[in-house]
Amino acid sequence: MPIPALHIGDLAAKVPIIQGGMGIRVSLSKLASAVANEGAIGVIAGAMVGIHDPNVFKNPRKANSEALAQEIRKAKEMTNGILGVNIMVALSDFSELVKVSIKERIDIIFAGAGLPLDLPQYVSEEVKTKLVPIISSGRAAKLICKKWLAKFNYLPDAFVVEGPLAGGHLGFKPQQLDDPAFGLERLVPEVLEAVKPFEDAHGRKIPVVAAGGVYSGEDICKYLKLGAAGVQMGTRFVATHECDVDPAFKQAYIDSSQEDIGIIQSPVGMPGRALLNAFLHDVKAGKKFVFKCPYHCITPCDYTKAPYCISSALANAQKGRLKSGFAFAGGNAHRVKEIVSVKELIDSLKERFLSCCPA
Ligand SMILES: Cc1cc2nc3c(=O)[nH]c(=O)nc-3n(C[C@H](O)[C@H](O)[C@H](O)COP(=O)(O)O)c2cc1C
Predict the structure, then answer these.
(1) What is the pLDDT of residues 208-237, one digit of tens each?
(2) Span 63-86, mean pLDDT?
(3) Secondary-structure class of domain 6-244+338-356 per CATH
(4) Per-domain residue ranges for the chain?
(5) Who's near 350: CB < 8 A, 6+ residues apart?
(6) From ligand 1's centre to the CA of 118, what distance in Å?
(7) Is residue 15 predicted with pLDDT exceeding 80?
(8) Which end of the chain has a smaller Cβ tally under 10 Å, C or N?
């Protein structure tokens, strides 16, 4: 079948792929604008985006807000395509980052790592920014629809449903991660079923986008056939020339084998999927890194008990200093064999989709 556009409100992405927001500073203006230029949706990650600002220790919230505004502006200079931001609900500066994104007229806000129950409070009639929660169950989709309607008379503009194979923080209990009952193939129909009564009652579509382990044109076909309106992909976009991380981070993906990809218990209080390296092995063995907490970035993080600072560890990895940090990665990262351009990646996904996906 021809590749369908992904419609989110009045936005239409010619290619039904969202590049997942990746922090810290993994997806910034360069990656997001390159993706948007190919007709897909490019996303800038908001988590501690200002971590390299010289004033970050004095005022991390201001540093993050300014850096996010700057990245949005830079991206807009490089594309007329569709751009989003990813803002984790667990961030202590969630509301500032949402406000700045709306002020900068971002097209879409993606909000996960917690339920964004109050997100519509930031938008008004004149604001065109779309609101898209990232969830991991039909129950969460239903709850958000109910609460948003009751409190704000607003329905989500779409949902991203993220399954257990995704990279980064995961919305599952560790024992659920390998349980087929929580597989993305099950979650997509579950979320579609949960949103259906709201679509029927309000006469509008709530597109559901599948994320977590989506790797090939065949995968895109599979999830569209299940009823998803598009897919969100993270890992594959890390392995692009345009991705905003140091080459050593990308090389770690290429060098990885399946055994190197594992689950960590993040100081954020959620499991996360990452490339296991010496740093994470030390943490697992009980090593505690002495650190001060200048950022107070994640609301549930108790830094007095955390063995290391996750923001510093991720920022080190982003700079290529993998001995003092680690890289988040999806379950399919070991399949990455080369770095390509965003255009090459999207062209090859489209091509494969067109040849393998029957109408
Ligand atoms: C390096 C990396 C960093 C990520 N950071 C974030 C983040 O800051 N916020 C978020 O909601 N998801 C984050 N994710 C999840 C992605 O947005 C995406 O949903 C997920 O990676 C999809 O699975 P895939 O990598 O198998 O394609 C991250 C993923 C990776 C690989």
Answers:
(1) 999 999 999 999 999 999 999 999 999 999
(2) 98
(3) alpha beta
(4) 6-244+338-356, 247-328
(5) 3, 15, 217
(6) 23
(7) yes
(8) C
pLDDT in the model for residue 76 = 98
240 CB within 6 A, ligand 1: no
Check: CB of residue 116 under 8 Å from CB of residue 133.
Answer: yes
Contact 36, 61 (CB under 8 A): no
263 CA to middle of ligand 1, Å? 14
Is 140 a pocket residue for ligand 1 (Cβ < 6 Å)?
no
Residue nearest (by alpha carbon) to ligand 1 atom 11: 112
Locate all alpha helices (DSSP H) within the chain, ordered by sequence.
Answer: 29-37, 60-78, 94-103, 138-152, 184-202, 217-225, 235-238, 247-255, 278-284, 310-318, 342-356
| pLDDT at 256 (0 to 100) | 97
The answer to whether the CB of 19 is under 6 A from ligand 1 is no
Instruction: Please state, rounded to an integer, the average pLDDT across all residues of the chain.
Output: 95
Output phi, psi for 6, to 5 deg: -105, 115
What average pLDDT does the segment 267-291 reach? 89
List, in sequence order, every residue forming a beta bridge with 272; answer none if it has no partner: 169, 264
The closest residue, in CA terms, to atom 4 on ligand 1 is: 22
Reported as a single tens digit per residue, the pLDDT across 247-264 is 999 999 999 999 999 999
Ligand 1: does its nearest atom lie under 6 Å from the Cβ of 346?
Answer: no
* C-alpha torsion angle, residues 276, 242, 30, 233 (rounded to 10): -60
Q: Which of 109, 328, 335, 336 best tests ligand 1's pocket when mutated (most atoms within 8 Å of CB)?
A: 328
Task: List, for residues 94-130, the tens digit of each pLDDT value.
Answer: 999 999 999 999 999 999 999 999 999 999 888 899 9
Per-residue tokens: 32 = 């997001």
Give, using CA atoms, the residue closest to atom 1 of ligand 1.
328
CB 13 within 8 A of CB 5: yes
In this predicted structure, the answer to whether residue 1 has a pLDDT above a threshold of 80 is no
d(CA 293, CA 308): 10
CA of 211 to the centre of ligand 1 (A): 9
The residue type of 306 is A
